[in-house]
């Protein structure tokens, strides 16, 4: 098989595994009365814990002792086994621990898949910057395909979503052992403990501008998973309202929510223009305003005359997600020395997807349970979304006035050199 096609298949399955349950797990959790909102918030905390704890550790293992593609395969088989067991669990605490095990095995495979792709492309003397993005976009397509599969098979509220994910995980695990070899680096340079674990990047907190940037990265990271946690559940809940119960958008809510991921792939193309025109600070500020719009539109949308708001909120998601993550990564690239650049990128992702996701998942569950549950234990959705919108607006305003960075067009151009 063509090398690029093999990497496309790897990326497709990598994110298909995640997309099969990430957006729909709330339907399963609350539909089967497994636990309350605060306990559900802890389930999404497993993503943050795993993002903090595992990628660096598995990266070291792949660098020193075992082929990356073999480690990648082993982790997927173990993750698949844990996901496969989840439908047998009905206790929220046991559910948490099983999901944590699954995520500890799964989350580091995201960075490992990139390493395998980079290594394979470089071994063929291909231009990674040019060739990799069209391969990686198939990961997002895989995520969307999984959402559609879960919805079209009638699995968005039952245990089949986990079995679909586990099956793909086992398939990718086996397939991984056929990928080109990514050997450990036998002639590696000895590094100190702090260099090995990327702790040198924490020195950036001595720089007030970088410290402010990482603080806002964490605060905005708290908002990133909220619509993954509750978006599909929100639209699906309209089935309880007789006038909306039989509408297409309610029955196929997961497909509607997949517009968010489709939008992601399109807004990536717009980033270079916006960065050159407005600069990194303003692009990140636009992202924060987009989160306000995303949550605000969900607050007032409905599956009938307000359907345009739900659809527009999904389109806005692409801007909200991509503009911060990619422009933030580019900011780190332009502001750090080559010696700690990789560690600094790791720190950025840790603040967003690690500490930020932990904070957002935990606190959102507590807040919803304390203030936004009706007497019959159903969600009071409009104030939930408006609270999230107000939070994002507050972060946006603070960022605009407190984060000092002057736009230099050459800064953006220098990223490519």
The level of helicity is: over 70%
CATH fold-level name of the largest domain: Growth Hormone, Chain: A
Mind summarizing the main beta sheet? none
Please give the number of β-strands: 0
Shape: globular
Beta-strand content bin: under 5%
CATH architecture name of the largest domain: Up-down Bundle
Topology order in helix (H) and strand (E) letters: HHHHHHHHHHHHHHHHHHH
The named CATH superfamily of the largest domain: MFS general substrate transporter like domains
* Structural class category: mainly alpha
Unreliable stretches (pLDDT < 50, length at least 5) are none
Number of domains: 2
Q: State mean pLDDT (0 to 100 scale).
A: 85
- How many helix segments? 19
Please give the CATH class of the largest domain.
Mainly Alpha
Radius of gyration: 21 Å
Separation, N- and C-terminal Cα atoms: 33 Å
